[in-house]
């Protein structure tokens, strides 16, 4: 995982639920390439035509509320979202995303500070969120454990690596 990432912001409101992130009518798709086609489809059907690898989603409170389906986090990872910055996250979505290796940052009032298509840089080490004019906000720092999961590419990769270390000791 890169410690410093730059991209453009896609801003959404409060209570963006998992059906907006990945509508339930598409759960029949299991291939990641097919799943990626419908990222944020319920909130913006053209999102996948505009987003570039490394771009950010910025949102208000309770991002990822709704069902516990992993599809919502899978589709955002598959489409290449660099990070999601929100004022708060639904608990299950937060764990699903982190476990899949999608960086999430909690930052109070961020939805009032960032506008659609703002160019941003995020320093994951410090939580600094900067724009063209300099520092905008500082997100809550990620725990060492969460950073390890993200740096490993997800919880499965981390556990696999840890088991290899134990088995080779």
Automatic annotation (TrEMBL):
Keywords: Amino-acid biosynthesis, Branched-chain amino acid biosynthesis, Leucine biosynthesis, Lyase. One of its GO terms (biological process) is L-leucine biosynthetic process. Its EC number is 4.2.1.33. Residues 22-102 form the Aconitase A/isopropylmalate dehydratase small subunit swivel domain. Pfam families: Aconitase_C (PF00694). It catalyses: (2R,3S)-3-isopropylmalate = (2S)-2-isopropylmalate. SUPFAM superfamilies: LeuD/IlvD-like. InterPro entries: Aconitase/3IPM_dehydase_swvl, AconitaseA/IPMdHydase_ssu_swvl, IPMI_Swivel, LeuD, LeuD_type2/HacB/DmdB. Transmembrane segments: none annotated. Catalyzes the isomerization between 2-isopropylmalate and 3-isopropylmalate, via the formation of 2-isopropylmaleate. HAMAP family: LeuD_type2. This is 3-isopropylmalate dehydratase small subunit. It comes from Sulfurospirillum diekertiae.
């Amino acid at each position: 995982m890169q410690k410093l990432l730059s991209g453009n912001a896609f801003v959404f409101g409060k209570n963006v639920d998992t059906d907006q992130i990945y509508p339930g009518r598409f759960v029949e798709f299991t291939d990641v390439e097919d799943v990626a086609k419908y990222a944020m489809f319920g909130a913006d059907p053209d999102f996948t035509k505009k987003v570039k690898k490394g771009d950010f989603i910025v949102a208000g409170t309770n991002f990822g509320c709704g069902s516990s389906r992993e599809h919502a986090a899978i589709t955002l990872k598959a489409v290449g979202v660099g990070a999601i910055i929100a004022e708060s996250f639904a608990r299950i979505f937060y764990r699903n995303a982190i476990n899949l290796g999608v960086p999430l940052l909690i930052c109070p009032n961020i939805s009032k500070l960032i506008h659609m298509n703002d160019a941003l840089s995020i320093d994951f080490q410090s939580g600094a969120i900067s724009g063209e004019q300099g520092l905008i906000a500082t997100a809550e720092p990620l725990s060492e454990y969460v950073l390890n999961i993200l740096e490993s590419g997800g919880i499965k990769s981390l556990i696999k690596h840890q088991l290899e270390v134990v088995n080779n000791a």
